[in-house]
Write a structure and sequence with these properties.
Shape: rod-shaped
Structural class: mainly alpha
Distance between the termini: 78 Å
Strand content: under 5%
Order of helices and strands: HHH
Largest sheet: none
Number of helices: 3
Helix content: over 70%
Length: 76
């Protein structure tokens, strides 16, 4: 009985190690990052678009108030 339990535990451990090796294969990591790259670029593009809109809105308000451009970005 104990031998059966030991054999099952050993096989389970071998499966876990095998899955870990597959999961942490360096080529797999590179493939996952390559797949995520497009999503990361898209999200950055969306952020940059919003940041540009905010900047234009701030510039419009501060220009109307007579705040010089240099003071607008330094916070002084």
């Amino acid at each position: 009985m104990d031998r059966d339990q030991e054999e099952l535990a050993r096989k389970r451990l071998e499966r876990q190690v095998s899955r870990y090796k597959k999961k942490h294969n360096s080529s797999r990591v590179a493939d996952v990052l390559a797949a995520k790259r497009a999503m990361m670029v898209r999200r950055y593009g969306e952020y940059a678009e919003v940041a540009a809109q905010v900047s234009r809105a701030v510039c419009g308000v501060t220009d109307n108030a007579g705040v010089p451009c240099m003071l607008r970005f330094t916070g002084t």
